[in-house]
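Hey, resending since the last one bounced:
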Amino acid sequence: MLTNVIFTFAQTNCDHPDYAPLVALYEATDGDNWITSWDLSNCDVCSYSGIICNEDGRVARIRLDENNLTGFIPSEISELEYLTTLNLSRNNLSGTIPSDIGNLTNITTLYLNSNQLSGNIPSKIGDLAQLADLRLDFNSLSGGIPTSLGNLINIFNLALRENNLTGSIPGSLGNLSLGNFLILDNNNLSGSLPKELSTFGSQREINPNARGGINVANNNLSGCYPIEFKAFCRTDFRLIVDGNENLSDFSEFCFFEDGVCDTTMLSCNNLQFISDSNKVVVNGLSASSKLEVIGKNTNYQTILICDGDCVANQEITNLSSGDYTVKVNLFDGNNYCYREEVVTISGNTTTNGAANCDNLSFKSESNQIIVEGLTASYNKVEIIGQKTNWQVIPICDGDCSPTLFIPDLEPGEYAVKINQSGNDGSYCYREESVMVSEENINTSADCDNLNFLAADEQITIEGLTASYDKVEIIGRNTDWQVVPICEGDCADTQIISDLAAGEYSVKVNQGGSDGSYCYREEQVILENGSSNRNGALEFAENLVLYPNPARDRVNVQLPNLNFQKGAVHIYNVFGQQILTTSIDQFNQDVLTVDLNSFENGIYVATIQLDGSAIFSRRFVVEHLR
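The structure tokens again:
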């Protein structure tokens, strides 16, 4: 009874506007038995453990996770009008989520996960327009997913996994175009996947090292895949559907176009590829298609021809002799397909004195390098490598022969540098890496002799003996993202290790010193795989950076997973390191980075784990000053 008297006295004599809501939270959650409690006789609420105030002394963040909170969430919590973060996760809270929580209009982070909360998800949560990160997972919530959650247009991470949610997935979640993760697995959701869901994350910041996606595994979903979901097969987004017995297999949908709801799916088989002199004509494109080309004479770099502005009979012009791979992503309304075709251009060699570095040919024979195509009015050739002590050696300058021999070279790798200019004012520069071997080994492209072997946790590729080899891999366990393995530096026997079990498509491009080129794609199945990548993918799934664009600060959510050490590095657009923070120097879910000293522009936050597993997020700084 004495405690109540003292408590009432403290409450009535504290005039801080946020004191009463905090007292209500303390009482409702058995604050006397928290691991770290509060002294309510102290009116300075900003000094309470787990409370962070803004510059005006108002409560901005509450972090009471893993603090033995028992009881319920009081409705008075909604009176904290300046609250931006509420983290009550990993406690023993029960009861329902108060609907008044929808009055916290400034909140950006709401963590109520890993408790014993029950009842429905309040529809008023959809009124939290600033919310970027919502975690209600690992509770006992029931009922359907409110369609109002589709109003959370600034959301990055929405996690509802491991509850008792029922009903269908609302198509309104497709409105969350900035989202990175939609985690709905291990519930009792039913019905089919709505086609509107395909636009979830469609306007997120794209980064080739960043992963995200939608997880609806272990529900009661059924039916087929809307054709719009084809976009999930070739992006950095994952769609995880395991454990839905009546839902078509997603890998079959991606690889073989099985299980598609729309049987009128567009076919790339009707495309025509016609080579004519120095050009290739692709017939049958739609305006919204994407066309690319790659080959030895593009330095094995993918060249974009058109994207969203293609014509029906699209020309690829000014091609020199050689083999090219033409890549087509064909879109027509809601339909999609992909095709690659190897096309040969022959007999197109410039002889008019104009600069044309695309026509140059580089060969290595025994102890010499042969450069063909030096037909410009002016040619300059230089060479550099380890065997030249990294000194640039001039070979010829203005007096080069059309076919130039660079003899008496020691075995090793050289960079051949060529400047060309023509009487017509044209100019070009090209630098080519050429390997001189001890013996005259055949380094021609020969994809037929490649051998693909599957073993525990790894895929082995034998026969990578061409002058240039490029290996990539894609599959469900790479999130349907093409992952580069090696390019130009592949071993003759290349091992791709530490792979999870599943089916992969291995892509190999080869270019020979004799101008030959080939491409091969092989399907490989691993029965047994490594779990290491799964841990890294789980980290990526829960990694969130917000807000983006950012002003004075940016937050990086760092999941609590089993990694020994790590660091967060921030780089500017020029690759200069601006900031480094060691992850093992703090014990918190969210790392906040002060951006006041940063200039406006684009930055990349890179998270390195155990010295090897690296994930990156790009963000923009836009100060108002």
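Residues 1-11, 531-538 have pLDDT under 50 and may be disordered.

Sorry for the duplicate.
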